[in-house]
């Protein structure tokens, strides 16, 4: 067991080098740009110059926004090509790549992508759903991978069909659509805590993290902290993923910035706004990337560049789970008065 644990725990650069390659099919954890994006892992991928990445995505987020800024994604299967919620909505980077015909975008509905990961997690080849029936998503001419000639069975990560219809054989309740399982080679999650053997515990929105974790071949977890396994096993019902599914563990505090990690730190709205403004032109985006992704040697230098004052403002309250001093819009958040008994608990 000791050798197995030793093999799992590694630093950021080692994990990226060991598990990522050109053309890999992968999935990112987190929810849009708001919660638990594996940002530091994405930065390291970009700094190493990987190309032609195939992303299967629950929705756009900070990582895909940055990848699109450098043209790292060649195939993008998703349900939404935006990246943010409150601080940046449209992904101008992907718009430029798409118009230049440098990226293939395969469109599914929100639920269809979630069901695809569920099918992958269950180990079944496809799953039925009523979702998006009657919409233009199911028009054959909108099958982007099919138009590109990539549904020929040669790529084990690309199904031979985007979807298929069938009549309900059990209840006779009409037509359903079958969507193929998502089978990424690698999934990368950012979480709050991981045991030294790999047991994962999280708080807050998980989106499709659990399904993505079980659907992939290799699971990499970047965590705010490594904690004793015996601590996590005292309340096993609070754990998201068992240690047997985890292949690599990277301990990296603040590694999800500028997204939030509930009870550790809040999302950095002003940082995302500046990136969004820069993304309106390729020239400004390249300047932003040079300053915030390419110019530092290691992640500690990135954090020093952010500055201690900024990090302190983003630190989450142990009671609310988010920062009580970070500004949202023009006004700071309202003060919360917690009853003494709750504070004692």
Explain the layout of strands and helices.
Layout: H1 2-8, H2 12-19, E1 25-28, H3 39-48, E2 53-56, H4 62-70, E3 73-78, H5 92-99, E4 104-107, H6 110-122, E5 126-129, H7 144-147, E6 164-167, E7 175-180, E8 186-195, E9 200-201, H8 209-215, E10 218-227, H9 229-232, E11 239-241, E12 248-251, H10 269-278, H11 282-294, H12 299-306, H13 308-314, H14 340-344
Parallel strand pairs: 1-2, 1-8, 2-3, 3-4, 8-10, 10-12
Antiparallel strand pairs: 5-7, 6-7, 8-9, 9-11
Helix pairs in contact: 3-4, 6-8
Characterise this structure.
The relative contact order is 0.15. This protein has 14 helices and 12 strands. The radius of gyration is 21 Å and the shape is globular. Helix 3 (39-48) packs parallel to helix 4. The chain has helices at residues 2-8, 12-19, 39-48, 62-70, 92-99, 110-122, 144-147, 209-215, 229-232, 269-278, 282-294, 299-306, 308-314, 340-344, and strands at residues 25-28, 53-56, 73-78, 104-107, 126-129, 164-167, 175-180, 186-195, 200-201, 218-227, 239-241, 248-251. The two termini are 36 Å apart. With 345 residues, it is α/β, with parallel strands linked by helices. Strands 1, 2, 3, 4, 8, 9, 10, 11 and 12 form a 9-stranded mixed sheet that branches. A 3-stranded antiparallel sheet has the order 5-7-6, covered by helices on one side. The chain has 2 domains: 2-251, Glutaconate Coenzyme A-transferase (3-Layer(aba) Sandwich), CATH 3.40.1080.10; 269-344, no CATH class.
